[in-house]
Design goal:
Blueprint: E1 4-10, H1 17-24, E2 30-35, H2 42-48, E3 52-55, H3 62-72, E4 79-82, E5 87-89, H4 91-103, E6 109-120, E7 123-125, E8 133-140, E9 144-146, E10 155-157, E11 161-172, H5 177-200, H6 210-222, H7 230-242, H8 249-282
Parallel strand pairs: 1-2, 1-4, 2-3, 6-11
Antiparallel strand pairs: 4-8, 5-11, 6-7, 6-8, 9-10
Helix pairs in contact: 5-8, 7-8
Length: 284
């Protein structure tokens, strides 16, 4: 078709998976779902829609799971597309992907960076630093792998260049508030592990593409040098007032508050707890 394999990592995504697969099934050659133990109808829905379904357990973190897929799915297409179950490709984006994959089939453009529009609490967020959100999602087979980090992981190209796609991918970052809280509690634990590996232990990092590199430097080089808990407050003020998250109404306020005073504050609390436990253990 267009020489593209799509890889979707899933666990309990019955609410989203059908919409995601239907948005890509008419322009990718293969749809590979790598599931990590769903107990809902995710696997059944994916199979009924023609996707290949693989199971890989345990799920350690996103980067390892995706790299496992690269190593084990015997992918033969020119391009690989990493897409999440809660993402939807619009018709305009689909046309652009097809065009750019053909245009750069034989040159040194080995990756494509996509921008995302986040749907939350009944609306798409366009302020508060949430739009556009960039991610490298399409790359040539053999030219990309995820860096090995627990959180904030990105695809790193072996060589070549990237281009930015112009049309939005729609990201439905919301099943319900319970799901959001559960997911971000899990994210917070991964963020603490990543904090210790990269900030505390100075794990060697690779050079990323534009927005990802800037975010990494801001997070590791500035944010984590600020006092714990106080930095979460600054984060809220930055997103809600300076980046004008208030223009997204009630949804924007809730999103900024949860990202700062719940998620970022929770990360700091887990860092504090870990250091406290280490201190107690060393005094025994």
């Amino acid at each position: 078709m267009n020489d593209i394999t799509a890889i979707i990592l899933t666990k309990n995504e019955e609410v989203n998976i059908e919409r995601c697969i239907n948005s890509i099934r008419d322009f990718v050659d293969r749809i590979c779902v790598v599931d990590s133990g769903s107990i809902d109808k995710t696997v059944e829905i994916a199979k009924n829609l023609g996707a290949e379904v693989y199971t890989h357990i345990p799920f350690e973190h996103y980067a390892k799971q995706f790299n496992w897929a690269l190593d084990n799915l015997e992918i033969n297409t020119k391009w690989i597309y990493r897409i999440d179950a809660d993402e939807v490709v619009t018709n305009k984006l689909k046309e652009e992907i097809i065009m750019e994959c053909k245009k750069h089939y034989n040159d040194d453009v080995n990756g494509m960076i996509m921008k995302f529009k986040i749907y939350f609490m009944g609306r798409f967020l366009t302020h508060g630093g949430t739009y556009p959100f960039y991610n490298l999602t399409i790359f040539k087979n053999g030219m990309g792998r995820y860096e090995n980090r627990s959180m904030g992981e990105h695809i790193v190209l072996k060589e070549g260049h990237t281009i930015d796609l112009q049309n939005d991918c729609l990201h439905y970052d919301f099943k319900n508030l319970n799901a959001w809280i559960d997911k971000h509690n899990w994210y917070a634990t991964r963020e603490v592990n990543d904090y210790y590996a990269t900030v505390c232990n100075k794990q060697v990092e690779t050079l990323l593409y534009h927005e990802a590199e800037k975010t990494k430097k801001l997070r590791d080089g500035i944010y984590y040098k600020l006092p714990k808990f106080f930095r979460a407050r600054l984060y809220y003020w930055y997103r809600y007032y300076i980046k004008m998250g208030f223009l997204d109404g009630t949804a924007g306020k809730i999103y900024a508050f949860l990202q700062a005073y719940w998620y970022r504050y929770l990360v700091d609390a887990k860092i504090y707890e870990r250091k406290l436990n280490e201190k107690i253990s060393s005094n025994k």
